[in-house]
Here is the input.
Amino acid sequence: MVDLILKAALVFAGMGVALATFQLLRGPDAPNRAVALDVLTLITMPLLVGLAVHAGRIIYLDVALVYAVLAFLGVVALARYYDRGI
Amino acid sequence: MTMPDTPLNLIGAVLTLFGSMFLFLGALGIIRMPDLYNKMQAGTKATTLGNILTLMGLGLLMPGWLPKIVLIILFVLITNPISSHALARAAHKAGLPLAKGSVLDQLREDEDAIAAFEAETQASSGKGVDG
Here is the structure.
């Protein structure tokens, strides 16, 4: 039962990744793509934690944490670049 | 990895399902919303809630991992509003248009008021130097 519910959750998150990727490719201009990238990384991070639970290794949680840090820095850098250039 | 059907595991799995539904709705929101600012509020708030629910559910599945997972949740809770705020401010400063039905732009009003005030003080101080 638990495995079935977790598989359903994986399907929902996978559809979210597909929609965010579609928006990332379609987005008419740079800020729209940046928002899509933000959402895409935010959906991918729980998937990484789910991978850690699936593999049963706590060390994979560090991967998710570092991924979150880098995603945050990336979005802030994009915003700053869009604001006044590098 | 197969999980036993204990009540705690069931609660965790249901929380994970709800969280991933919110993640999906956030991704749907950035496609359906009309302009950047609406997209941002759909994409940020829904995915933050989805993140918290999903990570809490996975933490209930693995109770020994809860401290580290709470650390990740706190990090997301702090940084996600900051990044979306920076992005929205940059887009507004660059003059990205609002959607057609928008009725209020308080940041634009504030910027106009500050510009008017600065022009007025500059004009009066310039007069003072002349006099």
